[in-house]
């Protein structure tokens, strides 16, 4: 039997299955693999097909957080629609996606790109439950190992000297590598900047306007989740948090930039 035929009715993945981060065996284009610590499920693409995941093992395809009552019995679903797999949160807890994005239960479904996507569901205390998802691309192949290829360097975003010191102040806690960092308020950032650049005339409004300009510029360059329309209300610190995480991830800002504020 050809491996592609296994996906017609679905294939159970046993507990202890290799991480999907290493790729999957050759499969039909658009096949979905979903895996948690206790096992998973693989299935081929078909319009309207749904794969459920959550705490209640008899009622889902992939059991996630079976012993954690903070995880919903049906925490979410993966649906095939118009040639793509979509992820929807049907539980009470938000789901954390790559790049720091949160998917809430009252939001619509989001599309999954071909390849590997780690999905985290927060549980009780400091627990997090990982659902690994892999959507096979058009060629159906496992990603090729590339041990001898040149490493792709990070690509910092262009910022000028004044923006660098301003963003270092705003992202003080991020550059100190604190757990769960938060941006400084406009006033706090302005006071810190005024202490090192007293002649510039830093104010809370000046910081706010300059940071908004950086967010707008990066958004136009394709960086997601830097506008109110993308994040939704209430915004809170989300826009600046997303901005600072992107700047640190891309090495636009590095811990050495704190020296600018000495």
Mean of all residue-level pLDDT scores: 88
Kindly give the count of domains. 2
CATH class of the largest domain: Mainly Beta
What is the CATH T-level topology of the largest domain? Tumour Suppressor Smad4
| Alpha carbon gap, first and last residue | 67 Å
Give the DSSP E fraction (strand runs of 2 or more residues): 15-25%
Number of E-state strands: 12
- Order of strands in the sheet with most strands: 1-3-2-12-11
CATH architecture grouping of the largest domain: Sandwich
Could you give a short account of the major beta sheet? 5 strands, antiparallel
**Which word captures the global form?**
elongated
Q: In terms of structural class, how would the helical and strand content be classed?
A: alpha+beta
Q: Which H/E pattern describes the elements?
A: EEEEEEEEEEEEHHHHHH
Radius of gyration over all CA atoms, rounded: 22 Å
Helix content: 10-25%
**Tally of individual helices:** 6
Low-confidence stretches: 1-8
Q: How would you describe this protein?
A:
- The structure is a single chain.
- The protein is α+β, with helices and mostly antiparallel strands and 262 residues long.
- The protein folds into two domains: 3-135, Tumour Suppressor Smad4, CATH 2.60.200.20; 161-261, no CATH class.
- It is 22% helix and 21% strand.
- The protein has helices at 161-170, 172-175, 186-196, 204-220, 228-231, 238-249; strands spanning 11-13, 32-36, 39-43, 50-54, 62-63, 76-81, 84-89, 95-96, 102-103, 110-111, 115-122, 128-135.
- A hairpin with a 5-residue loop joins strand 11 (115-122) and strand 12.
- The chain starts with 10 loop residues before the first strand and ends in a 13-residue tail after the last helix.
- The relative contact order is 0.11.
């Amino acid at each position: 039997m050809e491996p592609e035929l296994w996906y017609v009715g679905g294939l159970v993945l046993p507990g202890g299955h290799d991480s999907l981060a290493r790729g999957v065996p050759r499969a039909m284009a658009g096949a979905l693999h979903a895996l948690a610590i206790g096992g998973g499920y693989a299935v081929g693409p078909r319009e309207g097909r749904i794969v459920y995941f959550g705490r209640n093992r008899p009622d889902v395809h992939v059991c996630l957080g079976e012993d954690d009552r903070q995880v919903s019995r049906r925490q979410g679903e993966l649906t095939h629609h118009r040639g793509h797999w979509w992820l929807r949160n049907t539980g009470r807890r938000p789901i954390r996606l790559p790049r720091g994005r949160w998917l809430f239960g009252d939001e619509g479904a989001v599309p999954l790109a071909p390849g590997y996507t780690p999905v985290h569901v927060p549980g009780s205390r400091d627990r997090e439950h990982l659902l690994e998802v892999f959507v096979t691309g058009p060629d159906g192949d496992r990603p090729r190992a590339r041990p001898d290829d040149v490493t792709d360097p990070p690509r910092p975003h262009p910022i000028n000297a004044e923006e660098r010191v301003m963003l270092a102040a705003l992202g003080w806690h991020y550059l100190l590598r604190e757990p769960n960092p938060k941006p400084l308020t406009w006033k706090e950032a302005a006071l810190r900047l005024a202490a090192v650049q007293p002649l510039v005339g830093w104010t809370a409004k000046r910081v706010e306007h300059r940071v908004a300009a950086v967010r707008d510029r990066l958004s136009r360059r394709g960086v997601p989740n830097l506008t109110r329309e993308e994040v939704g209300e209430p915004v809170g610190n989300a826009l600046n948090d997303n901005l600072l995480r992107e700047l640190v991830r891309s090495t636009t800002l590095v811990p050495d930039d704190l020296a600018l504020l000495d």
